Amino acid sequence: MRSLDGGPAMSLSESPVKVTPLTPTLGAEVTGIDLTRAQDAETVALLRTAFQKHLVLVIRDQSGLSPDDQVRFCEFFGPLGARSRPADDRREGADAPAEVMFVSNRKEDGRFIGSLPEGEMQFHMDQCYTERPARATCLYAIAVPDEGGDTLFASLCAAYDALPGDLKRIVDDGRARHVFSYDSTNADAVANSADVRECVQPMAVAQPETGRPALYVNRLMTREIVGMAPDAGRGVLDRLIDLVERPEFCYRHKWRVGDLLIWDNLCTVHARTDFDPAADRHLRRFTIAGAPLKPA
Ligand SMILES: O=C(O)CCC(=O)C(=O)O
Ligand SMILES: [Fe+2]
Q1: CB 3.0–4.6 Å: which of 57, 116, 202, 217 could bond 222 by disulfide?
Q2: What CATH number belongs to 16-288?
Q3: Cα 44 to averaged position of ligand 1 atoms, centre (Å)
Q4: Pocket of ligand 1 (CB under 6 A)
Q5: Which atom of ligand 1 is nearest to the CA of 285?
Q6: pLDDT reported for residue 179
Q7: Interatomic CA distance for residues 178 and 218, integer angstroms
Q8: What is the three-class DSSP state of 176?
Q9: Residue 165: pLDDT above 50?
Q10: Ligand closest to the CA atom of residue 138
């Protein structure tokens, strides 16, 4: 390949950027890239394609990544999403970009400075209880415990492809109700309360760029299947959720400081394992804006 001015052009095979799958169904590690620098169009295209295919990208050893560097990376995939949490919950400092959120157990004056500070979290997609769930979520590790606090991912595309016929018939034109809750111990009380934040979504959603179908349900926030009797609906949801969480469709990320992850928030679910609350865990988070979900 020659460039227009006649000099040698770098073909993808010569590019130092490599994409290596982490499991047969999802996750890829990207190496040979320094995200504190601007990237050329070819690298951006490679990242986008890898994201659509592998659904979770892991980029290690990005120490010193500034908020602006992280924003530049996020914008390869689309415009930033607004914060999903109220502005008065924002204690990240006046100079932080408005869209930033910290997943953090750090405290100042006895109050957590960020969100989702402690404990285990069941599998979920972010903002599924809104009309426009984030297209993607990006986390950057600033401090992590030596042990625990792993983030697990599962492919909703692999789950869709593995649906048995009776469930596929329900899913293909089904809709489910998603309810805001990060506390699995009081989910039913939240679902029935008056000021609940909720949204009905298709159960089979299309990955926007490719049309690839994904089984859009999760354990933490999907409460019922529209139009099914509660007991029958619960039984179907339980079967679907067990399928989503099959270990062969999962990738478990053990964090190191300097790791940057971005995940497809329509085609994957994520969960977190427990960790010692005395250990410092501090991650910087941005989302990519989403659109209303299209049925597959
Ligand atoms: O803390 C984690 O590992 C995941 C947090 C999470 O669910 C999120 O950032 O959406
Ligand atoms: Fe999340």
Answers
A1: 217
A2: 3.60.130.10
A3: 25
A4: 103, 116, 121, 126, 137, 139, 151, 270, 272, 285
A5: 9
A6: 95
A7: 9
A8: strand
A9: yes
A10: 1
Closest ligand to 261 CA? 1
As beta bridge partners, residue 286 has: 138
CA 111 to chain centroid, in Å, comes to 26
For residue 1, the CA-to-ligand 1 centroid distance in Å is 43
Q: For the chain, give the number of residues.
A: 296
pLDDT at residue number 4: 44
Q: What is the pLDDT of residues 27-48, one digit of tens each?
A: 999 999 999 999 999 999 999 9
Place of tokens 């402690």: 118
Q: What is the whole-number distance in angstroms between the Cα of residue 42 and the centre of ligand 2?
A: 30
DSSP state string for 204-247: EEE-TTT--EEE---TTTEEEETTS-HHHHHHHHHHHHHHHT-G
Least confident of 40-44, 191-195, 215-219, 257-261: 191-195
- Give, for ligand 1, the residue of 100, 127, 151, 269 to mutate: max count of ligand atoms closer than 8 Å to Cβ: 151
Count of other CB atoms within 10 angstroms of residue 203: 25
This prediction's pTM:
0.92
Report the SS3 class of residue 133.
coil
Burial (0-12, 13-18, 19+ Cβ within 10 Å), 185? exposed
Give distance in angstroms: CA of 272 to centre of ligand 1: 7
**Cα–Cα distance for residue pair 80/87, rounded to 1 Å:** 16
Joined tokens for residue 274: 């427990």
